[in-house]
Amino acid sequence: MDWLILAIVQGLTEWLPISSSGHLVILQQFLKGDVLLDASLHLGTTLAVIVYMWKYLIDYLKDKQMLVNIGIAVLPITIIGYFFQDYIESAFSNPKLVSVLLIVNGIILLLTKRFNGNKILDVKKSFYIGLAQVLALLPGISRSGVTISTGVFSGMNREKAARFSFAVSVIPLLGAFTLQWYKNNFVLNPLAVLVSFLVGLGAIHFLMRYIKNIHLFGYYCIAFGTINYLISLVLN
Fold first, then answer.
1. 178 contacts: CB under 8 Å, gap ≥ 6
2. Which of 190, 164, 149, 162 is nearest to 39 (CA)?
3. Residue ranges per domain, the chain?
4. Does the pLDDT value for residue 183 go beyond 80?
5. If you write DSSP's letter for every residue of 42-89 in order, what string do you get?
6. Per residue in 55-76, pLDDT tens?
7. What phi, psi does 185 have (nearest 5°)?
8. What per-residue confidence (pLDDT) applies to 37?
9. Distance (Å, rounded) from C-alpha 10 to C-alpha 186?
10. Helix (H, G, I), strand (E, B) or coil at 117
């Protein structure tokens, strides 16, 4: 039942700002996963954000300026992710380093408590959010956490920053899945897709309900990262 545990963890951690990649790197020391399962899990959580964001995505497609903003935000991760994702993930997939990055992720989230604003999204903010998304290639840095935080640091309110964060994640996630499928030509695990989809959808609803207190997830990241760093020291 390793796949079920990993599907639940992926569903919870992909959209909560606590780093799915970081959790999976740590868990896969003890549980069995593979390329097929990894792709299935990511497809499920990607479908979850598309379903949740469907109305907003349709509205964004009708807004030329929003399309420009999304294009600018997606550009950095598209270029760097295409050429360097595999190298970055393999180089930084050490459990000790992942634990440190989880702590860094937690500190970033805690800092959002100091910021409140309601500024309009523009090209400059979109570019900053796009650069932040590149950091999420590092296992332990949360895609939603770092991009929402960057939006908040730029003066956006948390709800709008979160929705834009979700929107700009769709293209890179679908692109990464398509590339992985093309390279490996695998058959998906439908149950893993379904579980990660349902749990992911629930996680998004939970995050948006408590988005004003997103900084609280920082305490979890710091505690989890610290505990796992100490465990890694003992095991190694």
1. none
2. 190
3. 2-235
4. no
5. HHHHHHHHHHHHHHHHHHHHT-HHHHHHHHHHHHHHHHHHHHHHHHHH
6. 999 999 999 999 999 999 999 9
7. 50, 55
8. 83
9. 19
10. coil
SS3 category, 141: coil
User: At 7, is the secondary structure helix, strand, or coil?
Assistant: helix
How many Å apart are CA 14 and CA 142, to the nearest integer?
8
Residues 6 or more apart from 150 whose CB is under 8 A from it? 128, 129, 131, 132, 161
* Residue in the block written with tokens 């990464």: 176
Instruction: Tell me which amino acid residue 222 is.
Output: I
User: What does the alpha-carbon distance between residue 108 and residue 165 come to, in Å, rounded to a whole number?
Assistant: 16
Q: How far apart are the first and last CA of the chain?
A: 26
What is Dmax (Cα atoms) for the chain? 54
